[in-house]
Amino acid sequence: MDSSLHKGFKRELTIFFVMLCINITLAEGCTSLDCLQNLLEQIENITSSVLSVNTVTSILTMAFNASGKILESSSSSSSVSPAELASHGNLILKTSEKLISTLVKPTNTSEAVSFTLSAVEVEVFMVGPQVTLDKIPRLDTTNSSVDIDLIGIAKNNNETRSAAVAFMSYNTMENLLKPEFFNTLNDTVKTMMSTVISATLPKTTNTNLTKPVNFTFKHIRKFDPNGSLSCVYWKISEWIVDGCSVLETNGNYTVCSCVHLSTFALIMQTSRPSESDSLLDMLNLVCVTVGMVFFSLALLTFALCQWSPGVNNVARINLCISLLSAHVLFLLTQQFLRLIRPHQVLCAVISGALHFLFLSGFVWMFIEAVLLFICVKNLTQISSKKREVLSSGFLWVIGYTVGLVVVGVSAVVDPKGYGSEDCWIKMDKGFNWSFLGPVCVLLALNTILFINIIISLNLTLQNLNAEVSQMKQSKIMTFKTLAQFVILGCPWILGVFISDMKELEIIFLILNSQQGTFIFLVYCVLNNEVRQQYRKFFRRLCCGLKQN
Q: Which neighbouring-strand residues pair with 125?
């Protein structure tokens, strides 16, 4: 028999005998909350006071897998009420704590037990009458930790002089004990900023705390400096703050102090978006959609029209492709953010792809600026010698390699830098400069080239023959110059000065979302060759319709 198959069969057989011995059964095709409740009640009724780590992890894995599938199925049909969620959350907490308590066994000195599952991380620490530690080590999980005076608690247990603490960090419990269960007088948006944790004193006679317990919560979502943080604990059907307070906080973590043990979490309250924010979101959706339409029209024109041999459209085509792809991916991500966010790997891949596409867009803007500068400087098409240097293959390599290298290096330096709350680059540890740094350099170069282009165009306009309708030509050149300002991404400089100024934010949004529109106007609508080809196309179309 194959080795991997043999191991898998052996494991399943072991779990089967474990379940058989303690009489736990999961009905086949179990897809209802009632079925889940039955399973959890069976676990709660386990009579064994001591179980092995393998047994506990096997039962917990089965319970969390079943609850995850059933709750996902139920929530998708919107058939679960808040009361049902709270009830099943209570039951899962109770059964988990019951199972974890079976890991506690008598010890003379000290002993620790820990394990990690996909849904929960567990740390258990036990001390006995002959413990030699001055204080117990901090109990740590991936996103939280606890400091508790367990030795002092043990000394207060006069008979046994022993005590145990069980610390659990639940990765998916917020799907049941939702932040919305934090009932406050002010109407705010509640966000769960931490994993849900539980701390108990199993098999300990006197559970009175000698000192407040300190919990350190790592922020699992983007921290809003304007938000209000609350250390809360779970009581039957709601989150409340009694007995808990914030000791210390920064952008990455918060320390909470509580005078009792229970199930805890960190919840942030922020003001609900104002009408102006909603309008800005709507404006963003409309503007980006319009820009995408014109990006598509420009690409269609570049593909179908016949261009002069000297015209190099490589930069314009790839600029459209990069930004159109980035905008499509960004809009889709924002529309389905609730579905994508739980899948951290997918979220990180999307943020890396957006990083690459936007950077590539800026590189193609720079290449377009270089080509435009050469054309204006020479007042003719690029010479054959220069065309060899700036061949399409060379431009392709530069246009996409720069973005690929930056993203690759960024991923190697900090693999966790991708996948923020909005599936974008994380702003902590300066990782945002992996995007801002290259963008600032490219924008500075584009601005310098743009200024040189304006100076060259101004000299050209001064030397125009008056017979060639100088006023009309000047207007067209002025419009094209302003359009190039947008096409080359220069309005991104406004992003530095936006802050809370809504007017600047709206101007920034409109200009940068309409790059596709300006590309279509400058290189398609205002191009005589393209207009003539459009006329021929529509004449043929009209003739064909008349004949039919």
A: 112, 165
Is the same domain home to 380 and 488? yes
- The alpha carbon dihedral of 235, 240, 242, 246 has a sign of positive
- Residue 90: what residue type? N
Residue finishing a domain among 242, 272, 302: 272
What's the burial of 451, exposed, middle or buried (CB within 10 Å: 0-12/13-18/19+)?
exposed
| Count of structural domains within the chain | 3
For 412-442, the pLDDT digits (tens) are 988 888 888 788 888 767 788 888 889 889 8
* Strand ranges across the sheet with 213-218: 139-140, 144-147, 213-218, 253-258, 244-249
CB 191 within 8 A of CB 174: no
CATH of the domain at 524: 1.20.1070.10
CB-CB neighbours of 65 under 10 Å: 14
- Greatest alpha-carbon pair distance for the chain in Å reads 110
Strands (E), 25-117: 110-116
For residues 321 and 446, membership in a common domain is answered with: yes
Same-domain status, 293 and 387: yes
pLDDT-derived band at 478 (thresholds 50, 70, 90) equals: low
Q: Is there a single domain that holds both residue 448 and residue 478?
A: yes
Name residue, tokens 């065309």.
387
Which tokens hold the place of 61?
């894995």
Q: What is the DSSP code string of 23-40? A: T----TT--SHHHHHHHH
Tokens 């608690």 found at: 153
246: left (phi over 0), alpha (psi -120 to 50) or beta: beta
Question: Could you give the CA distance from residue 206 to residue 156 in angstroms, rounded to a whole number?
Answer: 7
**Positions of E strands within 137-195:** 139-140, 144-147, 163-170, 188-192
Residues 347 and 360 in one domain: yes
Helix (H, G, I), strand (E, B) or coil at 309: coil
Among 315, 327, 314, residue whose Cα is nearest residue 358 = 327
> What is the pTM assigned to this prediction?
0.55
DSSP per residue, 118-137: SSEEEEEEEE-TT---SSPP
Residue type, 441: V
Residue 354 has pLDDT above 80, yes or no: yes
Does one domain contain both 207 and 284?
Answer: no
For the segment 98-155, what is each residue's pLDDT rounded down to a tens digit? 899 999 998 999 999 999 998 999 999 999 999 988 888 899 999 999 999 999 999 8
Domain identity same for 287 and 408? yes
pLDDT at 225: 80
- Same domain for 201 and 54: no
Residue 223 pLDDT grade (very low, low, confident, very high; cuts 50, 70, 90): confident
Domain that holds residue 539: 275-544
- Domain of 241, CATH number, reads 2.60.220.50
The residue out of 237, 272, 307 marking a domain boundary is 272
